[in-house]
Amino acid sequence: MRRVSIYDTTLRDGTQAEDFNLSLADKIRVALKLDDLGIDYIEGGWPGSNPKDQGFFEEIRNYELKHAKITAFGATHHPGTRPEKDANLRALLDAKTRVITLFGKSWTIHVKDALKISLERNLELIRDSLAYLRPHVETLFYDAEHFFDGFRADPDYALATLEKAVEGGAECLILCDTNGGNLPSFIEEAMRAVQQRFPHVPLGIHAHNDSDVAVANSLKAVEMGAVQVQGTFNGVGERCGNANLCSIIPNLCLKMNVACLEPDRVKKLRSVSRFILELANMPPNRYQPYVGRSAFAHKGGVHIAAVERNPATYEHINPEQVGNRRRFLISEVSGKAAVRYKADEYGIPLSSTDPVALEVLKQIKELEYQGYQFEAAEASFELLLNRAMGRYKRYFELIGFRVVDQKMSEDEEPVSEATIRVRVGGQEEHTAALGHGPVNALDNALRKALEKFYPELKGVELSDYKVRVLPGKEGTASKVRVLIESFDGKEHWGTVGVSHDILEASWQALVDSINYKMYMSEQGKGKGRNGS
Amino acid sequence: MRRVSIYDTTLRDGTQAEDFNLSLADKIRVALKLDDLGIDYIEGGWPGSNPKDQGFFEEIRNYELKHAKITAFGATHHPGTRPEKDANLRALLDAKTRVITLFGKSWTIHVKDALKISLERNLELIRDSLAYLRPHVETLFYDAEHFFDGFRADPDYALATLEKAVEGGAECLILCDTNGGNLPSFIEEAMRAVQQRFPHVPLGIHAHNDSDVAVANSLKAVEMGAVQVQGTFNGVGERCGNANLCSIIPNLCLKMNVACLEPDRVKKLRSVSRFILELANMPPNRYQPYVGRSAFAHKGGVHIAAVERNPATYEHINPEQVGNRRRFLISEVSGKAAVRYKADEYGIPLSSTDPVALEVLKQIKELEYQGYQFEAAEASFELLLNRAMGRYKRYFELIGFRVVDQKMSEDEEPVSEATIRVRVGGQEEHTAALGHGPVNALDNALRKALEKFYPELKGVELSDYKVRVLPGKEGTASKVRVLIESFDGKEHWGTVGVSHDILEASWQALVDSINYKMYMSEQGKGKGRNGS
């Protein structure tokens, strides 16, 4: 079976995306996760360009990776100096990686308009930079920036730059569609010309998605013999993003019979995709191929009936192969079949006659109709299950709260204050707190009231708070769904609330968060429930 | 120049998407918009399947379309009856469209597991259904459902179904990748076989995006000679969606020299894309190729400098060709160049020495840093501009407000009440209102106070209210951005507010909304500012 290397550039090219930012600590966590998945190369950054990237290479050296090789990325040396004097090449070597990827210019307009040097001088930069790095590094790759646009504009020159890269000692020539403007048929044409000129040099592909064909361009290159595919998780990247590895990997493994991950790792794909989105606080795209929440969701009644008889009728793969799952959208179906599917979805051991399970399912259906959503709020779901099974314990009782938000003039920020009365085991507590906004005031007051009775709540922080206005035309009276993620230093758990009143919705999610913490403490539970 | 027909199925297959729903009135508005764009065929629905679709066909007959033909979609007749007795075929004819698209089964497992009839009987259904419709309709298309999967499983049978469709009188055979599981190389292989068998029959393509290659599959089919491409706007559709016409259209027109819209219409693409998303209350995907907000956004300093010299260096097309625009992400750059770009973005006539313009730009930069975002809030932006130019008029002064949200027991919804004091031209008004939640109470109180002085505010409704928690790790104290869209029966306008306090953020957006309405009334302005 043929094998192709996967080269991930989420940490470098991916972070060029608008609204996708990772801290140094996040970058380390992503690298370890990608290593665990079995990615071959992880491009950590451009050490010459910013201090965060330099910090990454220093830090990652403290970890022993299982499989992946970390690579450092950088440009050819400055035209005004020599390789051995060039700060950028120096930074690349200082990153102390086993692999370096150097990029150079293939397109004449870039040589003239961006570098502002002669075409001949650019050829020297490519060869000399690579030749200088060559003895100092185990593996050396060459990214031919704008190769396809360059080839269209001046095929001879574009091929000449590759010639110099080979002379300089590059082991693999990665052909880049940097602007994402090329279609698969042209990828084929250009790549054929490269293969005729360099029949024995390994090639790679680096595609961007500006024409919505980055995945197809990458697959085309593999079909033609490319041995390396560069891309990012979830397709993040500048403008419309890079080629999406979450699509390329399963297309290669499951459809084209090309190996790239160990077979048992492909089913981790969805969880790694989600992990990265969560770290970057990016909302997932529910329609994302393979790993999206809707990727195996069936809505039409005809489709559901057919999938029930034979899943292949409307599913191109078994969703479990990529760690995803089938969903039947309950609103469109009814009766026992729908209920049984919903039970499967939540892993409820349902003999179809069990009255408790049926009651729970009825509740879920009703709550989802109201706008609740349990995928990211498994703690709320588990509490609901417990309640239906009579295992619910009340840790406190609310007597009442009042939240006041007062603005005293046009130029002053309002002041938010919450008062609260709760009862715990016969004892009443009446207290008050201020906050940054009314939700925060209520949150502070509730914690203040309860920490007296349950000191373990002091260690709980809210690691995420999300508000979604539910579709409707009610303006400021619209329903909102609040999702809260809590963290106690060890476990993450998600809870949900829905109401026309944002304070009530937040209250529901806060109460579930606290109840779940107390429930975990009593059970001595070790398993997190972050819904990811 | 070669021409290909565009067949839009946003209103039929598109509405199978999770979370994408259009009312009957919305469907009419979308159809008119697509007609205006110059789409050839607009599939309005499946009249046999639900009353909303039937209503669409009745309603759309009242409009005279400029170019598009409305098509009705339906299945082959029920195996237990004859065509002339079949309710589904009857409903198709009752839709009274000039075009009908009939779909049939190409894949043996569907015939056996879904229809549960013999392979021979399925062939009869296809031929007889089409032959029955043929004399009653101007144009008749055949959608070969699951053609590619069917061809892989049993090529002879799949081709036999097409044979029957041709016998029945179909004018175009549309090959469907219904499950979205096929890659471009297989599309090519199967289509070649079809062309060998039916060298003179026009072919079309209908692709789904489950493998992230729906656009590439569609382009491949066009390369091979397909004369019709089916898809949806923004790629909405069941599971991962249909082939995205927002990508296919510019790829055809701008890259492949294949005509499909009138040249001057392509630049409407972005606004039609946004219009449909807004009607469906779907958040736009900022990374969407061609039409997304980030599609021509440049972040890296190197890229910005190069684009400044020559846009082709990092842009595959001129963004104006599809109605989009270039953006430089201000955070990453500095100095005069950045300021000038920001001015261009907002259309400010800036001589680089104008102190007012420079002051405005400084404010925008600061506000964007705080989390304000003006693309969907052009009314707020225009007010800001007016203030800087000294043209700002105060329509009222806030003396103070207080919002109280009180919950009296665990099972009761809280009660929200707002009190407010404002001054208008020396007169003070002190009033109060209840609401569904605290934001709504404040909204109600403010309107109540001001409508006394400005009766024109009575006609203003809030047509949309959105809350976004800005990235950060502050839990319930996170900053939120509120976007409000207002409508006065004629104009739409968007306003924005940002604060740690959701009431304060909503307040800012509400105040801007009211000020903008008053400003428009005074100017007698006719132009909407909905930022779309």
UniProtKB/TrEMBL annotation, chains A, B:
PROSITE patterns: AIPM_HOMOCIT_SYNTH_1, PYR_CT. InterPro entries: 2-isopropylmalate_synth_dimer, AIPM/Hcit_synth_CS, Aldolase_TIM, Citramal_synthase, LeuA/HCS_post-cat, LeuA_allosteric_dom_sf, PYR_CT. The keyword Transferase applies. It catalyses: pyruvate + acetyl-CoA + H2O = (3R)-citramalate + CoA + H(+). GO terms for molecular function: (R)-citramalate synthase activity; 2-isopropylmalate synthase activity. The keyword Amino-acid biosynthesis applies. Keywords: Amino-acid biosynthesis, Branched-chain amino acid biosynthesis, Isoleucine biosynthesis, Transferase. Pfam families: HCS_D2, HMGL-like, LeuA_dimer. Residues 4-267 form the Pyruvate carboxyltransferase domain. Its EC number is 2.3.3.21. GO terms for biological process: isoleucine biosynthetic process; L-leucine biosynthetic process. It comes from the Bacteria. SUPFAM superfamilies: 2-isopropylmalate synthase LeuA, allosteric (dimerisation) domain (SSF110921), Aldolase (SSF51569). Pathway: Amino-acid biosynthesis; L-isoleucine biosynthesis; 2-oxobutanoate from pyruvate: step 1/3. Belongs to the alpha-IPM synthase/homocitrate synthase family. This is Citramalate synthase.
